[in-house]
Amino acid sequence: MDDDLNDGSGVIKDRDECDDNSHIVRIKYYPVELENVPEYGGFKRWFQMFKLYRGKKVDDDEEDSNRLSGLFKGNFCIYKIAAEQVIERQNSGDGVLAVEEKDMPKLKLAYGLPIHRPIDIRIIVYIVRCLDLHPVDFNGMADPYIVLHCGKQKIVDKEHKINNQLNPVFGRSFEMDVTFPMESLLKIQIWDYDTLSADDLIGETTIDLEDRYFAPNQARCGIQEKYEIFGYNVWRNPLKPSQILDGLCTDLKMEMPKYIENSVVVGGLTFEADESGGGYVENELGERKLLIPNEHLALKVLKNWQTVPGGCHLVPEYVETRTLFCDERPGVEQGKLEMWIDMFPKDSPMPSNVVDITPRQPKSYELRCIIWNTDEVTLDDTNVLTGERSSDIFVKGYIKGVGEDDQQTDVHYRSLTGEGNFNWRFVYRFDYLKAEDKIVFKKSMMLGMSEIEFKTPPNLTLQVWDADLVSADDFLGLTSAFFTFLLLL
């Protein structure tokens, strides 16, 4: 996932070589936790979480966490009860039937409450990357890895730790089978690996899976931007858009959708197809028609479900950003975590594909630069006897930085006009990551015991210097050139 594309408007799923990327499907990026997005209301439609404490607090300095004995999930509703008349018939004992009218309260429960039995769920947790982790090693870095907790289940992904990084790109996905309500809290931890001592907890975040699963916002699996049956953006929810729409209409006791040519009527509203939603094909007569029209029309309704009476904002395909905290440093942010979760009931078909978010690997390239000559270079030296000005010219170039891959030509001595002739070739070998438009390289640290990865723009810097025998060489000028366009040829 690209830093330059993570701007709050969306994250590119894939990238084409052409300059116009308007056709590429994007994922909604949230810079906060999904439950903190205002239009979703914290997924608290049915339940609130109440902490249960043991005993009485006797000391103001006592931590409440020491008395925490459990959690209660439920809700309290207070509403005025409408009375209804009930006729009671009682036998008086002497064979006479007594009739009496009474006003009885009309009791009711909230409509649509989740079912009261355990539910088996498969969750897929996608961990994209971490940002600005708190350094815990003495060298100002960390060796982070991922740990997941849900109920009694635990996944430790220590074998995929990333050394010496505060902004690690994990690109990992994990599958877990859980049962609601017993296993409803997912805890994601980022640990620091240590060779000689115990590993350190950097930070953690907790997600209430049950709240998301039962929320009317369809947070189980985000609604994709387009419905496609093949390619990188293939529809991954086992339920098609039309099936999801039918379920929502049933929940609201609403009439089923009516599909009429290139439009659909839901809740008294008419939604028409548009080409931006995709799915159009052109026949031999040049006519454009919808392929699988019902699905594309249903998807348009889902993307605008908040406009339907009784509807709400549905969660799109997303990446959320969660803040990491640590009990040892309460209230202090320990970094950010970018991720998302998909949830599917096990009594329904499982998704046929899992999104591959494995980090892209850089490709190796070689750049050759010919230094032919220089012209009109500043004459920096002056002959003390004749007063004649000259320069001993040489050219230095680098991509990764001075001390990493810098090279220089031989010296053109005593140039009187600023002209230097070289016919010299620089050869640079590097690894280029197209997705981020960056050159990737590693530097050895701590006497070669560890390495740190660096990324720099594909920029060739050329400097012109005046060579001196006694004093330091004099800098005369520089130029730089981005060569991304050469890498795309």
The main β sheet shows up as: 6 strands, mixed
Unreliable stretches (pLDDT < 50, length at least 5) are 1-19
Structural class: mainly beta
Give the overall pLDDT as a whole number. Answer: 83
Separate helix tally: 4
Gap between N and C termini, in Å?
23 Å
Description:
This protein is mainly beta and 489 residues long. 7% of the residues lie in helices and 41% in strands. It is built from 4 helices and 29 strands. Strand 8 and strand 9 form a beta hairpin. The longest helix has 11 residues.
Summary?
With 489 residues, this protein is mainly beta. The protein is built from 4 helices and 29 strands.
Task: Please write out the topology.
Elements: E1 11-12, E2 26-30, E3 48-53, E4 68-74, E5 83-91, E6 97-105, E7 119-131, E8 144-150, E9 153-157, E10 169-180, E11 185-192, E12 200-208, H1 209-214, H2 241-251, E13 258-260, E14 263-266, E15 269-272, E16 280-282, E17 288-290, H3 293-303, E18 318-323, E19 336-345, E20 363-374, E21 381-382, E22 389-398, E23 407-408, E24 412-415, E25 420-433, E26 438-445, E27 450-456, E28 459-466, E29 474-482, H4 484-487
Quickly list its features.
single chain; 489 residues; mainly beta; 6-stranded antiparallel sheet; 4 helices; 29 strands
